Amino acid sequence: MDIRREQLKKVSNTKYIIDVGVVPNMNVPGIIYASEKMISKILMDKSPIQVANVTTLPGILKASMAMPDIHWGYGFPIGGVAAFDVDKGVISPGGVGYDINCGVRLLRTNFKKEEIENKVEELLNKLFSNIPSGVGSSGKLRLTFNDLDNVMIKGVRWAVENGYGRPEDIETIEENGSMRGADPHAVSNRAKERGVPQLGTLGAGNHFLEIQVVEEVYNEEAAKVLGLFKGQITVLIHTGSRGLGHQVASDYIEVMLNAARKYGINLVDKQLAAAPFTSPEAKRYFSAMVGAANYAWVNRQLITHWTRESFKDVFKKSDREMGLEIIYDVAHNIAKVEEHIVDGKKVKVVVHRKGATRAFPPNHSEIPAKYKSIGQPVLVPGDMGRYSFVLVGTNKAMSETFGSTCHGAGRVMSRSQALREEEANAIVNNLNKKGIKIRAESKKTIVEESPEAYKDVQDVVDVLQEEGISTKVAKLKPIAVMKG
Asked: Which of 14, 90, 99, 364 has the most beta carbons within 10 angstroms of its beta carbon?
């Protein structure tokens, strides 16, 4: 079954509703945030039916939502947000995704573009040499299972204690880089075997490290609080929990399929496999997911450390002299227990964000003190040929989308289609013409990640700006890209 255009009720220029009843057994409506220009393409990839299917899960509250970067995913659409009552609802690995805590980290430097232009290629080569990347890549650390258990429990605190970072790094990472509730015993030996060699690696696919320049500032006040200015050099890191997170997801999808049968959960799609959040199966999955999330934050922390080392090698200055401070680090594949207002009452919910970013408003208790006046920073990477955005969260996001916004551009072309239609040398030449240098482990990755494979991220963030769900602060343009 597909959702047809006439089954979408347009309620604003950028908001569409799938009413209860369009699909059997819906408990709440579905909501898709998109422009008129985007909606026809969204309807082509079957993700709207996934938005509707999510509404059939027990205990869902308010609506199943999708951001403008929506596209087809496993069970839940990528770009999806759904919250479930902690007592009556479920948790579903399909609502988190295979790359647990795939996320983005932004570093600011004290450099202006013109100060590094003649060193960009040298810097990119040094980063490529210092940071392992590619499919199945192995890192520079030699860890035991006991070390890995500590990584999963402590998160970024483990990295800082072992000399991979500054103490102040912790305060500008979501959950301070150490989400509570991890249990390494809930993580299989197979997941640990995959995780031990890969800590501190970028990986492949859509993961990247980019040297960028602040091209435009939309909100001077917020930019000043974040330490951003026009012409400034920044570094954006996008990666997640590597093979460990993937294995955790694989392991628990099987567990959840059995749990759904055990607890009498009717699944309209097996990929929505879920268990009641209060069940032993859900508790084990959640504690394994938290461990994988903490692993991912450490992964980005180690890459940050080697980024600082690379800058030091090239510019012969201390990393503090060059800045290289973390502006913020966000997760965009995760489930969290949070308090939200639903029907006028404060309730505890488990919020699934799959290809969606937390976007808490000003003065929220979980925002770093220095950002309370502006709201939580949101980092939205685009494709490697255009730009990325820094946004901040809003009160409307808190009341309407469980404090959530988009996570990126969203694919419009599958990897296999890109491989059929694009060519690596042509992509590299086009990037060079735009002043963007690239290093990648394989030509295949370059083709799969062609800019044409993605929506224009400007269209995505403009929809959410118009809806008031997040506010644009700055646009960042890549000048050097490292891919796996």
From this structure: 90
